Amino acid sequence: MVFALQAGTSCAVGVQQPVRLTLAQSTESSQACCTSAYPAPHTGGIRASRLVGATVRNVLGERLGTIHDAIIDPNGTVLYAVVAVNGVFGSYDNKYFPVPWPALRRSGDYYVLNIDAAGLRGAPSFDRDQWPDTASEAWTTSVYRYYNQRPPSLEASR
């Protein structure tokens, strides 16, 4: 199942906890809209259209990359952000790095990931034109464990 968020659609996405999103059919048009199942604090939400392209930095403020996409399970929980490094690591430009959503912390107009460049180079990644099975519990668990995050239970989302 694929979830698409239309540009310009408001969708509160908190950073502290995995987020549950509900897709609802609009009664005024045939377009789907996104609403938050849990109200986000006024200052804690961000529109999904602003998530893609957001800069990711480490705790020293060094640019690691940008958020290219997000993986959302069938229940609407954001599992991880897909980070593109674009020129940061040279030969890694053809790779995407999945980062567990709970490992990212929003700081103003960018996200902070507590890892240095060498640590990110060794992180799970995949070729841009060869995505992994994002529904795989083993894949998601390996990504979460690399970043010292507790993997979500994917059984509950099937």
Short description:
By secondary structure, the protein is an alpha+beta fold.
Describe, in plain words, how this protein is organized in 3D.
- The chain has 158 residues and is an alpha+beta fold.
- The protein has a domain at 48-157: Roll (SH3 type barrels).
- 12% of the residues lie in helices and 29% in strands.
- The protein contains 3 helices and 9 strands, in the order ββαββββββαβα.
- The protein has helices at 48-51, 117-121, 137-146; strands at 21-25, 32-36, 55-57, 63-72, 78-84, 95-100, 104-107, 110-113, 126-127.
- The N and C termini lie close together (11 Å).
- Residues 1-42 have low confidence and may be disordered.
Q: What's the end-to-end separation, in Å?
A: 11 Å
Shape: globular
Q: What is the CATH domain class of the domain at 48-157?
A: Mainly Beta
Assign a percent range to the helix content: 10-25%
Strand content: 25-35%
CATH topology tier name of the domain at 48-157: SH3 type barrels
Strands of the biggest beta sheet: in what spatial order? 7-8-3-4-5-6-9
CATH architectural category of the domain at 48-157 = Roll
User: Structural class of the secondary structure composition?
Assistant: alpha+beta
- The CATH homologous superfamily of the domain at 48-157 corresponds to PRC-barrel domain
Structural Rg: 15 Å
Supply the number of helical segments.
3
